[in-house]
Amino acid sequence: MSHIFKNEKKFTILFFVVLTIDILVKLNLSSFPYRYISKPPITLLLFLYYCYNTTEKRKIKKSWVILSLSCFLIGDILIIEHTNIILLSASLAIFGFAKIFLSLRLSHRSDFDIMRLVPFSIVLFAYTVFIVSLLYNSLKNFFIPALLSFFVSLLLIQFAFLRKDVVDRISYLYVFFGVIFYMLSEGMMAIKTFKMDLPMQDILIMLSYGISVYLIIFGIVKEHRKNNNINPF
């Protein structure tokens, strides 16, 4: 079995087959018990892939990834019944912790050009304002939790963006686009839950979420620090 996790092509095929099965289950079967069986393997596969392939020497860095994936797994299970207010609230909190742990893993001490971050931050702010203004009248008691969730997502994508020129290009692109897919999935899920239905929403949300965690973990595994950085991670 280990040879599958060591082989990028084989693992990618396996991962997207499992993701496709979960999407089909969501579209055609009841949530209980079927999605409680089909959804957890998505994160568990990435957990095993990371453990088999990581070359990270710092234990704290490994811990952040493991904690993040553990939170994603719990959040995935809780959000299956997203119409339940208690489970939805708990999932928002758990996903928030997952993003915080991931942000800690992506953080570094290398110098960066603050001016390069300004236009990017403006785009992120505009996106957040758009989503929040769209959902404002529908969020009600969830306004503060949703705002905090989007704020943590903004931190995550900024940490991903600031890895540019600090790590190799392949790792940077994998993680950066992975976080973008995550924010798209999160935005669509918020609109679906609090505002209105979207065309092909279940397929798009699950597909973009699956792609996001896949890209992020692959990017972290492939990470190589550039030699021209003086300060260590």
UniProtKB/TrEMBL annotation:
Pfam families: YhhN (PF07947). Keywords: Membrane, Transmembrane, Transmembrane helix. The keyword Transmembrane helix applies. The chain crosses the membrane at residues 12-30, 64-80, 86-105, 117-136, 142-161, 173-191, 203-221. Its main location: membrane. It is a multi-pass membrane protein. InterPro entries: TMEM86B-like. The keyword Signal does not apply. It is found in: Membrane. It comes from the Bacteria. Belongs to the TMEM86 family. This is YhhN-like protein. It comes from Flavivirga algicola. The lineage of its organism: Bacteria, Pseudomonadati, Bacteroidota, Flavobacteriia, Flavobacteriales.
